[in-house]
Amino acid sequence: ILNVEQSPQSLHVQEGDSTNFTCSFPSSNFYALHWYRWETAKSPEALFVMTLNGDEKKKGRISATLNTKEGYSYLYIKGSQPEDSATYLCAPVEGRRALTFGSGTRLQVQP
Amino acid sequence: DAGVTQSPTHLIKTRGQHVTLRCSPISGHKSVSWYQQVLGQGPQFIFQYYEKEERGRGNFPDRFSARQFPNYSSELNVNALLLGDSALYLCASSLSSRSETQYFGPGTRLLVL
């Protein structure tokens, strides 16, 4: 079972602030890393699938980077908006096994 | 296009009972995965099925079983329910493998009393 750590556990920011979260995972036997956004009362929504060391992905104001050698990924949100309030989950894939989700970072953006 | 659908949305059972949860994947998706999510934790992998065959199983007891039908829909069965089985059960579909983007349904919230 992979040990996946996400930090911080929760975050409160003001509208317009930029923020970032960390996902740490074992670097051995890495295959892929998924990021999901999960809003209350909705289904988890896929943000990115990253596979290569040094990968950078962007979707609107949200971007992510990946370092497979040291086993971490950062998710950045530029100019946070209240609609960004959600739990952000990362899920590395070891070998070709199942996604192992972290406990998530809960983001609350105050207007 | 319809997304992943799950039924029922909520369910209350008592200890020792059996439950069946259902999932219909996105049209064209042949893989279905099941996850259990308890409060404060991320979803935990239970099963993956692809083309009606089990492709992976998480660290869950044999009370948990699943199957996939020819139309790629899936059922998750849990026997001899325990209080600790109370959770949100999520189904996700993908085109083929677990490493691809998975599309989640709204979940079934199970309460065991």
Task: Describe the fold and architecture.
The complex is a heterodimer of chains A (111) and B (113). Chain A has strands at 5-7, 10-14, 19-24, 30-38, 45-50, 56-59, 62-67, 72-77, 86-94, 105-110. Chain A has 111 residues and is mainly beta. In chain A, strand 4 and strand 5 form a beta hairpin. The radius of gyration of chain A is 13 Å and the shape is globular. Chain B starts with a strand and ends with a strand. With 113 residues, chain B is mainly beta. Helix content of chain B is 0%, strand content 50%. In chain B, the strands form 2 sheets. In chain B, strands 2, 4, 5, 6, 9, 10 and 11 form a 7-stranded mixed β-sheet that branches. The mean pLDDT of chain B is 94. At the A-B interface, strand 4, strand 5 and strand 9 of A face strand 5 and strand 10 of B.
Secondary-structure map with pairings?
The complex is a heterodimer of chains A (111) and B (113).
Chain A: E1 5-7, E2 10-14, E3 19-24, E4 30-38, E5 45-50, E6 56-59, E7 62-67, E8 72-77, E9 86-94, E10 105-110
Parallel strand pairs in A: 2-10
Antiparallel strand pairs in A: 1-3, 3-8, 4-5, 4-9, 6-7, 7-8, 9-10
Chain B: E1 5-7, E2 10-13, E3 19-24, E4 31-37, E5 44-50, E6 53-57, E7 64-68, E8 74-78, E9 87-94, E10 103-104, E11 108-112
Low-confidence stretches of chain B: none
Proportion of beta-strand residues of chain A: over 45%
| Number of separate helices of chain B | 0
Helix-strand makeup class of chain B: mainly beta
Order of SSEs of chain B:
EEEEEEEEEEE
Overall form of chain A: globular
Helix content of chain B: under 10%
Share of residues in strands of chain B: over 45%
Structure summary, number of beta strands of chain B: 11
> Which sheet architecture does the biggest sheet of chain A show?
5 strands, antiparallel
Name the poorly predicted regions of chain A: none
> Distance between termini of chain B?
37 Å
Estimated structural class of chain A? mainly beta
Distance between the termini of chain A: 39 Å
Number of strands of chain A: 10
Q: Characterize the largest beta sheet of chain B: strand count, sense, and whether it forms a barrel.
A: 7 strands, mixed
Give helix % range of chain A. Answer: under 10%
Average pLDDT for all residues of chain B: 94
